[in-house]
Amino acid sequence: MADDAPDLAALPRRRLIERLVADGRLRDTDVRRAGGAVPREVFLGPAVYRASAPPGVTVWTPVRRAETTTEEWLRLAYEDTTWVTQLDGVLAEHAAGPVTGGTPTSSSTLPGLVLWMVEQSGVRRGHRVLVIGAGTGYSTACVCEIAGAANTTAIETDPDAAERARTALAEAGHSPTLITGEGLRGHAERAPYDVVIAFCSMRHVPYGLLRQVEPGGTLLVTLAGWGFGHGLALLKADASGGAEGRFLPGYTSFMAARPHDRPPHGPVELLPGEERPSRIDPSLLDDWTGRFVAQLAAPSAERLGLGDGQILLDVATGSQAWTRTDGAGGWTVVQRGPLRLWDAVEDAVGHWEGHGSPDLSAFRVSITPDAQRVLLAGPGGPSWNLPV
Question: pTM for this structure?
Answer without folding.
Answer: 0.93
